[in-house]
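User: I'm putting together a teaching handout on how multi-component assemblies are represented. Below are the sequence lines for each component of a complex, exactly as they appear in our records. Could you produce the 3D structure of the whole assembly as structure tokens, so the students can see both representations side by side? Please keep the chain order the same as the input.
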Amino acid sequence: MADNSVSWWRLFAMQNDDPRKALGMTVLVAFVAALGVSTAATVLKPYQQVHVERERQARLDAMLNTLPGLRDLMVEAGIDALETRIVDLQSGQYDPTIDPAAFDPVAAAKDPATSRDLPPDADPAGLKRIATHAPVYLLERDGRLHLIVLPVSGIGYQSLIRAYLALEPDLTTVAALTIVEHAETPGIGARIAEPDWQALWPGHRIADEDGRIMIRVARGAEGPYEVDGISGATRTGNGITAMLTFWLGDHGFGPFLDRLRDGGA
Amino acid sequence: MTRLLDRLTRPLIDENPVTLQILGICSALAVTTTLATALTMSLALTVVICLSATLISLIRNHIPQSVRLIIQITIISALVIVMDGLLRAFAYEMSQRLSVFVGLIVTNCLVMGRAEAFAMRHPPGASFADALGNGLGYSLILIVVGTLREGLGLGTILAVPLAPMLGLEGFTPIALMQRAPAAFFILGLLIWALRAWRPTQVETPEFRVTGHEEDA
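Assistant: Of course. Below is the structure of the complete assembly, with chains in the same order as your input.
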């Protein structure tokens, strides 16, 4: 330590036109700045997380409001929120051992015990590692499914996009898509978060008769599987396509949806 | 003491960074749709410019000329990131409305300009006063433009409806005021008014067109 401080003094004592001083000062300033920024980020994280969480909940509520008749159904059933259940993604079964209220998907995706690496060829959404379990939100009445909401995520142009995909009881028709979190380019990719664009989604079909995932964002969209992209935001659109392809496929909710179609999970 | 006071007050009107030097225009246009966003942005910029000028001034004798811009940018950007983080933690909704513009304080010529032109050559006290003056000068313009745009464009001030207060029941907000061109118009008129009042602020033309007589 003593040796260190001596060398710092030697740095300050150098002539300003000495290249070693230029290098040393740059490194020193960068180090102090990095220390300050990372300290601030760590200290502020929990405060920011509260807002992000609240925003996510508000978006989910807002999405439910866009679905025709859904609120009436919920009022009739005497509930004000969807039921949350935890799904084991690989087996496609509900896992009753995990308490949905205590399940934190973000933390689970980081914990080695509750997450797994994705092989690069099975990772179109660029997630690298996902949790082994995921929450799903359901509206069931008298044993009949009315709506199911799946949380999905993937890398867009420059940020991680999180969204909720709501499916009709046939498990193929999109009821709604809502983007809950992203940091895409303001004014371009960020338009995915606007209601106008999200309103294009309802009624589209996610898969063809053989169960192949067909839904995609495309320019000049045609047919039941294509949603019109935002001009200038091709890569954000591709990110959404990859995100849905992944989460509806074999490594995502595919096994769960198959089980549900066959009559129960 | 009077010199410090002078440094603080001169950038408010006589050497206003926005209207005289036309610096920091990008954010001045973008965040002035309402007074609340203009105030938040003013506060963020003033804090960043004061801290960056003071810090840079403190180490000014040890900043080699060859890497001075790198060092200035590093300090300014670190402060901006922290500022942005603070807003997202404690004023989340406001930070969503300001979107990228807090982050863009890094590229604001005003902050860099004061660091390069003043803080590099003056002691911390003077640098702080100069930075605070410039921050307040920037804030003053933002507040004027923000008040006009919100008042005329939405008919509110800080989201409080104006019409009942002023007895103007039939007032229809001018939608144009909320659009970007309106900020240019207001800023242009403001600069015109200032230069009419203080003719010393008028720039001398760099060249004059002559010789048309021969053509005619």
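A couple of points students might notice: The two ends of chain B are 60 Å apart (CA to CA). Residues 2-145 of chain B form one domain.
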